[in-house]
Amino acid sequence: MDLSNRVAVVTGSSSGIGLASAELFRKEGAVVVGVARHATPEARAAVGPQGRFIEADVSATGALPALFAEVERSLGKIDVLLVNAAVVKLTPLSETTPELFDEVVATNLRGAFFTLRAAIPHLKDGASVIFTTSYLNRIGFPGASVVSMTKAGLRALVRVAAAELGSRSIRVNALCPGAIATPLWSKLGLPADVLESAGAEITRQIPLGRWGSAAEVARAALFLASASSAYVNGIELGIDGGLRQV
Ligand SMILES: NC(=O)c1ccc[n+]([C@@H]2O[C@H](COP(=O)([O-])OP(=O)(O)OC[C@H]3O[C@@H](n4cnc5c(N)ncnc54)[C@H](OP(=O)(O)O)[C@@H]3O)[C@@H](O)[C@H]2O)c1
Prior knowledge:
The protein has helices at residues 16-27, 41-47, 64-75, 98-119, 145-165, 192-204, 214-225; strands spanning 7-11, 31-36, 52-55, 78-83, 123-132, 171-177, 180-181, 212-213, 236-239. With 246 residues, it is α/β, with parallel strands linked by helices. The chain starts with 6 loop residues before the first strand and ends in a 7-residue tail after the last strand.
């Protein structure tokens, strides 16, 4: 699945699925622009010498138009946009504060929406746009109300964006990971024993009997990014070992 000479922008590229996707896109020939708040050595290495890492917070939506204008000015129009940056905070409904709600929405929904909004003038006709949603938008996972709402919102956005951008032959799809072993889980702030038992309970529900890896999700992202998926549009592709499919 060749991405030679394609310009690919990946948000949330400093860790997990975004990092693995940036690396894979580069290996497949793309010039990759990674975006995240922290310029880790891994994040810089993933984009390689031809690419660029831009330290930015997608919740600061006012800065996004200039970011994408700079990408086009330096590298040309964008062929692939992976809108992947997100934060996950778990809290019961009764304990959810307006501050937590706003923090999660600011990155996962508002940030994702305005990432696409800002990128639109800089997308090449025929580009592929991919949003990372989550299996959480299909279930009632206690404590995940705000995160699940943001991911359900992105599923809806994918449909509308596919309808609006189809006239420019731009495809818009969602990548929907199940339980994937990334640093995300350690950022939840859960005690180790709670994390372990929750993880075991999720594993029991996965037909393949194991969690996925960031590299496995990246391969699905590559499929949606490449010409291999030229007639795939508006879908949400589950990469979950069957977790939400059976
Ligand atoms: N892992 C799973 O089991 C799983 C399951 C379903 C869906 N997902 C989704 O998959 C995507 C990637 O998750 P992951 O597991 O790879 O998580 P991760 O390892 O925590 O990576 C999240 C990435 O988002 C970036 N990010 C967070 N807030 C940002 C902001 N305001 N501006 C710019 N970048 C920001 C982080 O970098 P900085 O901190 O450096 O900014 C990091 O690079 C997310 O959309 C997540 O919801 C993951």
